[in-house]
Design goal:
The complex is a heterodimer of chains A (77) and B (155). Helices cover 30% and strands 26% of the residues of chain A. Chain A has 2 helices and 3 strands, in the order βββαα. A 3-stranded antiparallel beta sheet of chain A has the order 1-2-3, with no helix packed on it. Chain B has one domain: BH3618-like (Roll), CATH 2.30.290. Chain B is built from 3 helices and 11 strands, in the order ββββββααβββββα. In chain B, strands 3-4-5-6-7-9-10 form a 7-stranded mixed β-barrel. In chain B, strands 1-2 form a two-stranded antiparallel sheet. Classes of the chains: A alpha+beta (77), B mainly beta (155). At the A-B interface, helix 1 of A face strand 6, helix 2 and strand 7 of B.
Chain lengths: 77, 155
């Protein structure tokens, strides 16, 4: 993994057309601006992973497999 | 008509107008972009991959599950699907089936948005984090769906 130090207002460029900018800092929270082509989807990782899990559970359930879902996962904060 | 091979339904014949092409693969199923919507006459329809006979998703009309389902599709997403008229848009939410009714749920946060006019679709992750990724058909407790809606939206 590449690790870079950036200040507020500074950016990194990924490839030719993706810019990730540090907009604001509040304690342990960072506000990030992402400028990317429409064809590139940008997701919060936990949301992406949750959707991926549900999609897989759905596909498995179509084969008659029962959903196995660790109950702790949904209530985690 | 063309014949396709599926694991669940065997060989089936589909009309070209049933074909759906994804601008991006369904999340977690890379490389699969050609699907067909199979209607077996039940409220649950089947989004069957034409690229992988083993991949099929149960889908429902989210408005059948939640009558006050109310969403706004971001303009960039609608544009990516070539939507010109909102009336052409059809929504399908991916559903987890189970023999235990309490486990049956659907994803209202990331529906399949289909432009019926051109057959182009995408699983769109809606910005509204109050929409449940696990919307249970039979709530165990009155507020179960609300709890689920809030999980995973702590951003």
């Amino acid at each position: 993994m590449l690790v870079l130090t950036r200040r507020k207002g500074e950016s990194i460029i990924l490839g030719d057309d993706v810019e990730v900018k540090i907009l604001e800092l509040h304690g342990s929270q960072v506000k990030i601006g992402v400028q990317a082509p429409q064809s590139l989807s940008v997701h919060r990782k936990e949301v992406y992973l949750a959707i991926q899990r549900e999609n897989r559970a759905a596909a498995e359930s179509a084969e008659g497999k029962e959903p196995e879902e660790p109950e702790a996962e949904e209530t985690k904060h | 008509m063309m014949k396709i091979r599926t694991k669940k339904f065997g060989a089936i014949e589909v009309n070209h107008d049933q074909e759906i092409r994804f601008v991006q693969p369904v999340i977690g199923f890379p490389g699969l972009i050609n699907y067909v919507l199979v209607d077996t006459g039940t409220p649950v329809k089947w989004l069957q991959s034409m690229d992988d006979p083993a991949v099929v998703f149960p889908v429902v009309n989210p408005f059948d599950v939640k009558s006050d389902y109310n969403i706004e599709i971001p303009t960039t997403e609608a544009a990516a699907l070539g939507v010109e008229d909102g009336a052409d848009v059809q929504l399908w939410s991916i559903t987890v089936l189970s023999t235990d009714p309490a486990e049956i749920r659907t994803n209202l946060r990331a529906p399949i948005v289909l432009n019926r006019r051109n057959g182009i679709a995408k699983q769109v992750v809606l910005p509204d984090s109050n929409l449940a990724m696990k919307y249970y058909f039979v709530p165990k407790k009155a507020d179960r769906n609300k709890e689920v809606a809030n999980a995973g939206s702590h951003a």
